[in-house]
Amino acid sequence: MRRKLAAGNWKMNGTGAALAELAALAESHSAPAADILVCPPATLLSRAAEAARGIAIGGQDCHAKASGAHTGDLSAAMLKDAGASAVILGHSERRADHGETDAQVCAKAEAAMAEGLTAVICIGETLAERETGNTLKVAGTQLAGSVPANATGANTVIAYEPVWAIGTGKVPTLEQIAEVHDFLRAELTARFGAGTADSIRLLYGGSVKPSNAAEIFAVSNVDGALVGGASLKAADFSPIITALE
Ligand code: PEP
Question: What are phi and psi of 90, to 5 degrees?
Fold first, then answer.
């Protein structure tokens, strides 16, 4: 049985004052029936880990190497040292802004796993890819290329995030979400076997809000959500978590 997961991606938002939102979230969900993960900017990781009280804290990226001449980058060990237990990898904004490839995402995931971090690996099609009927092809290629061979339910979470749904208010139909999530589960089963595949959580991400969370969470093979904008305020993220519990 997969435990549900509500993951928040604060992206490049938040200074110290934002930690009050995390504290409020922790207070409202002191004994949650679902896992909660908040991924603030790296500058807040240590303080977030102190304020989190039961909520897991994650990074938004890490370097594939353990150390060295990589100005501005952070290693998985540094994230862990700052209090992270997970890291988002291959978000479409990083794939677009930094040209990250599936192979690079896979290498980062291996580095994260080697440090004991859970890799939250993001995949998803652009609007052009959906409109040309390539959604499953893209999802399958990204999944195969971005997920390391040693993936397990403990070290890996997959987030299906259609690029066109991120931050736009546009959401796929429930049938479209089900089609991709069922496909991803089948692909994982073919590669890793049913035992491992059934233990890996599949999150949906893209304009999840309090008003649409419950219906999305009822979709087959949706084990939770990766939430951007609506994770910034406890008043928005809290009802999403409640919908998952
Ligand atoms: C995201 O950035 O991962 C995301 C899903 O953003 P939003 O919820 O704002 O669409």
Answer: 70, 25
Number of structural domains (the chain) is 1
Rounded Cα–Cα distance for residues 112 and 71 (Å): 19
pTM of the model: 0.98
Which residue segment(s) compose the domain that 145 sits in?
Answer: 5-244
Q: How confident is the model at residue 54 (pLDDT cuts 50, 70, 90)?
A: confident
Please tell me if the CB atom of residue 216 comes closer than 6 angstroms to any atom of ligand 1.
no
Which token pair is 55?
């909520």
User: Catalytic: which of 91, 93, 100, 187?
Assistant: 91
**Is the CB of 135 inside a 6 Å radius of any atom of ligand 1?**
no
Residue 159 sits in a domain whose CATH number is 3.20.20.70
* Whole-Å CA distances, 68 to 121, 151, 170: 24, 26, 41
Say if residue 1's pLDDT is above 80: no
Backbone angles phi, psi at 167, to 5 degrees: 70, 15
